[in-house]
Amino acid sequence: MKPVTALVAVVVAAVMLTGCLYAHVTLPYGTELNKTELGHKQGEASMQSVLWLFAWGDAGAAAAAKNGQISTLMHMDRELYVVLFGIYARQTTIVYGD
């Protein structure tokens, strides 16, 4: 019975630690994706953190719209980049519009 218990423990640990060493994902902010129009422009704004102690940047929608010279927002995405349980992390807001 011990080999089965060890296997279960390894599977549980693998599931719980998924993405802890490295993760780079993009997620939509909206859920009405069947009606999404992206527009002709794209803008990005990011914030970063190191060692869970220091953080800087502006990942807000207004900053992303300003960076992309967008006056009408149509859709937003969020991009997450995390290394080693968050020792370094970057969150980027991506906006689309005209």
Top keywords for this entry?
98 residues, five-stranded antiparallel β-sheet, 43% strand, single chain, alpha+beta
Explain what you see.
With 98 residues, the protein is α+β, with helices and mostly antiparallel strands. The chain has one domain (20-97). The chain is 22% helix and 43% strand. The chain has two helices and five strands. The chain has a five-stranded antiparallel beta sheet with strand order 1-4-5-2-3. A hairpin with a 4-residue loop joins strand 4 and strand 5 (88-97). The longest helix has 15 residues, at 2-16. It is elongated, with a radius of gyration of 18 Å. The termini are far apart. The relative contact order is 0.25. The model has no long low-confidence stretch (mean pLDDT 84).
- Termini separation comes to 62 Å
Helix count, per DSSP? 2
Secondary-structure element string: HEEEHEE
Strand percentage: 35-45%
Helix and strand content put the structural class at: alpha+beta
Which parts are unreliable, with pLDDT below 50 for 5 consecutive residues or more?
none
Q: List the strand order in the largest sheet.
A: 1-4-5-2-3
| Portion in helices | 10-25%
Radius of gyration: 18 Å
Brief sketch in words of this structure:
This protein has a five-stranded antiparallel sheet.
Describe the secondary-structure layout.
Blueprint: H1 2-16, E1 22-28, E2 41-50, E3 54-57, H2 61-67, E4 73-83, E5 88-97
Antiparallel strand pairs: 1-4, 2-3, 2-5, 4-5
